[in-house]
Specification:
Shape: elongated
Mean pLDDT: 84
Low-confidence stretches: none
Helix content: under 10%
Bound molecules: zinc ion
Strand order of the largest sheet: 3-2-1-4
Length: about 60
């Protein structure tokens, strides 16, 4: 996977914990998909959810 491209990720609302699919941009921005105006609870703060070894990630090459 070439670097500098956006990736799919998962985020959760930092207020209520609702999870959303999101786009992760190269500049570090997280954009929840389908929730342009933020979480249904009213929060607009999201944090990335990191699953331990579920999603296939690109392998690190030396
Ligand atoms: Zn919320």
């Amino acid at each position: 996977m070439p670097s500098g491209k956006r990736e799919r990720t998962l985020v959760e609302c930092s207020a209520c914990g609702t999870a959303y699919a999101a786009t992760s941009w190269p500049d570090g921005k997280l954009q929840p998909i389908g929730t342009k105006n933020g979480c249904r609870c009213g929060s607009t703060e999201f944090r990335e959810v990191r699953y331990p070894e579920t999603a296939p990630q690109e392998e690190e090459a030396d």
